[in-house]
Amino acid sequence: MSKWCLRVFLVVSFGMCPTLAKAQSPCPHLAGNTFPNITDGMVICTVPQLYGPQGLAVEDFVGPLQNSVGAGGQFVPAKNNFLLSVNGSVASQIAVLPLVAPAAGISLVLDKSLGTYVVSNDSFGPIFSERATTVGRNRLALGFSYQYMNFDSLDGVDLHRFPTLFLQTIIPGTTTTCDPLQATGGCGATRDFMAAVNRIDLKINQFTAFATFGLTRRLDVSAAVPVLTVDMTAAAESSIVPNSGEPGFLSFGFATFTNFPKSNGSCLSTHTAGSTTYCDLALFSNSQRSSGIGDLTLRVKGTLREWEHSGLAAGVDIRVPTGDENNFLGTGAIGIKPFLVWSYGGRFSPHVNFGYEWNGQSVLAGDINTGTKDNLPSEFLYSAGVEAGITKRFTATFDLIGQTLMNGPRVHLVQTLAPGACDTPPFAGGCQNPGSPIQVTTIEGTKGTYAINNASLGLRLRPFGKFLISASVEIKLDDGGLRAKAIPMVSATYTLR
User: pLDDT tens digits for 324-347?
Assistant: First the structure.
């Protein structure tokens, strides 16, 4: 226990200080000239290593996507590297996953006729928001929740089917650079480009244990510890468009030489020219799975003012980076969120929450190629809702839950230009009459401020005593950020004393 407390203390104390250690990439095989025949086994590396340890490096003239190592065609993203843009957006938003509020649902009131505290007939409180009342002096509430998240969109882009485009800027087998959109003569060889239809599957099972203890009648402390299982799979159905005028000049082949990394693809479609068979369409995939403890959240909340039926409270959450950020189990950065709560008590109980979270530095917001860290986006959090006590044992809840992320990574689909076809093979007279550029859709990474808004519908049941069972579903109201259509949740809470 003493070692655990010391670790938490050190993380909280120094989590926001810049590191003096040399940055190291969590995916070390993304760079370098060693051509390892392995991939780095962490979730953060799943998308960047989709085409293999160092990108797409295969036989014939198809070279790597991530770097300039190796011979052959050097494909580069038409806008920016979607492998890193998508990965950065997904990774940085792991920090804003919804977490059940670590508070008691059972409210105890003093029955003056009995001279003791009894279970209130009011509602049982919100699920993801807070209310101004505390658990009560020397009382302990213990709880457990489970959430399932199956993400299917990123900033409105369908993660199960989105396009990407890669162009060539160097004549295959040479060091001569060309503009593929203007290429003529021998540069016509760079008019071959690569298009892909991509799919990312990201599923998270989150189990959270939480506890709340009343230090006084107006002050309580809470802790929430999530345990997560993360499954991530990326796949790309990639094709080479032979616009150089020489079909098969570039084609997919899968390296068998010891000085080349092996791409983890398989050929889906071929064509034959003369006695040679060329691969035109290939499928690449990569998947990783991880399980472990997430980031610990500590909370202090106190009632500032009480009226006859309502109250005002303030508190602060401290997120301790105890989870492994390289496996999307945590953020890798401390987070501090002060908040205010107003709520009204009764069978019909509205509430409003406001908060602002400052986040420290994490590789999730930085550059995984170098291991450089950057600040996770700060966020303004807000929620408003109501609970209705249907019976003494049954409550319905509704919440509007929102977050505004400041200058966070984003992606969107754009129209860009790809080279038109050549009339003559580049090494048989050269490309003399190239076709006009063609419009192609691809994905682009940007940064910006955006909102994530959800509606939460829930039911809370007290089957007996101070035991409370809750169930809810979060439904997305907009397309900002990493989203699932719906996030179900179940939880159980028991209040002692």
Answer: 999 999 989 999 999 999 999 888
